[in-house]
Write a structure and sequence with these properties.
Strand content: 5-15%
Strand order of the largest sheet: 3-2-1-4-5-6
Structural class: alpha/beta
Pfam families: Hydrolase
Largest sheet: 6 strands, parallel
Protein name: HAD family phosphatase
Radius of gyration: 17 Å
CATH topology of the largest domain: Rossmann fold
Organism: Neoroseomonas terrae
Number of helices: 10
InterPro entries: HAD-like_sf, HAD-SF_hydro_IA, HAD_sf, PGP-like_dom2
Length: 216
Amino acid sequence: MPGAVVFDMDGLLFDTEVLHRAAAQDAAAEHGCVLPDAVFLSLIGGSAVDNRARLLAHFGTGFGIDDFEACWSRHYAAHAAGGPALKRGVAELLTLLDALGLRRAIATSSSHEAVRRNLAAHGLAGRFDAVVARGDYARGKPAPDPFLRAAEQLGVAPGTCLALEDSPHGVRAAAAAGMTVVMVPDLVPACDADRRLCATVAEDLHAVVQLIAGCG
């Protein structure tokens, strides 16, 4: 039985990555260029600094990255106006953690405002004991900093935590923090390297419910 559970947010708790992909591609079109799916997928779960570097490597060093990111945010707000969908199994998993008395945190590359907005859209405000978001750590994923900070806020040793991630960058970060990792892939399927870092790869959070329930 884990001592605590640390969740990624985008693509794991909420179905936001498909909205971000549409928004990023809309922003690219508005700038008269194309954002290939492979480039977008390389951004998922990455730090803001690393992702800016990836975008500039694709678009060119003279590309107006600040304008592009602002445009991306504007298009995302339009795509997510009704709130992103909740991923399968979230409600059931949180109910199980409540029953077991297990503390839980979010460790995300997104902003605190994005976390608050997504949680509020589904009535989940207050269901997490800690939130670690952009600005709370020195280095983003795939560095372990977000997960180490989450364990610190929960008051538990990282090695006792179960980390739930959907992206390769997140899997690497959680594994580097010394946590037991379960990958629940969203847009990016698990590769052999991901599988070697994970205890298992789960189809969805319903499968994670079964895994944790089986630890009792």
